[in-house]
Design goal:
mainly alpha; 12 helices
Amino acid sequence: PRYVHPVMAMHVSKDTRDKLSKWDMQLACITEKQKEGVMEMSAAATFRPLPVEIPLGICLGQDNTEVGEEPKIKVESVQQLNSWFDEVELEVHFEEERSYREYSKQLQNYSQQSQTLLTEVNKALELLEEMCEKHQSVSMKTGALYEACEKLVEDQTKLTNVAESITEKLSYFSELEKIGGKLNTPTLSATSDSFVGILARLDECIGFIENHSHYKESLTYLLRFKHYQSKALGFVKQHVVHTLRHTTQSVLPKQGEVLSENSYAQFYGKFRTSAPKIKMLMREIELRTEKAFEYATLLHDCHQCYVSQRALLLSPTVNATIEELKKIHGTNYSGLVRAGCNFLSRVCQDEYQLFFHFFTDNSSSLSGLLEMMCYSLYDALRPVVIHINHLETLADMCSILQVEILEDRVKEKGKYTVILHC
């Protein structure tokens, strides 16, 4: 409750009594008799006498006023007493309500403080809402920036992959100048350590360009790579031919020279010494024969060169040996057949083994070489057999060929004498 001044409280009290009087007369639901009783009680209360304890005419005025005390009021009538009583009653009520008024002031202060705090909270909420809006705006911008960065990273990755793919594809075309420079090096030979790598790189580049013939200037690059491939294969052929010819010339008997027992050992020893480097190249060539006909052609040329050099070396020697056997055995035709077949069996065995010192795969050229040497014995025995009239001698020769040579020796020695069966 709010603070009320004592003077104002007096007026309030009178107004209240008037309202109560109106309520008694107009609003209270009482009978006429009850109303008369109330009027009588009101009249009696108006003219109440003073209490016995208070003498009539007493005056507690200024003469009896002590220092520090309030002045006494002289009461001469009931009306004054009522007024004084109302004032005292108001003061009592005022004092009783002091704590409530103070508490009301505190509440009002708290209300003001709460209102101030509420205002500050509202301001803080407004600032917080503004910060939330700004945070949302920043978040949206950050999200957009993040998406843009992701898109840039994705584009960068795609471009990097495209660049790597282009670089990888261009590397095949760039190899043309590198390989050309290596092949034009004066010190390069077929036995160089880097030569096999050059062949492999040429195959890769040619294969790539053939599979991507729609690329610009692919045909031009393909022709140039083919040219370098032919040049590299020419180095191989030149090395093989030169080595075989040089080896043949180093062991080839001079005209009129008598062959010794060591001659045949030299025929094979020299070639076996030259075989490892050639076989290394031939193995690379044989692995590529199915990929390109150039390699198959080179391998066939190497076979032919090998066979021609071996035939050049062995044909005179084999013919001379067979003629020597004919002189030794004379009319002992069975001994001639046995000795001739044994000789050719050893030669075929040695040639078969020597061939695989140079090459890995078998070849029809080797069969042709062995057939040629066998025909030398055939050409030597045919005129003799034709003129033999003794049936027992012919039967003995057939038995030697059938049992000793074809069955026993061919089965024992295997592939390198199978040509004798033919």
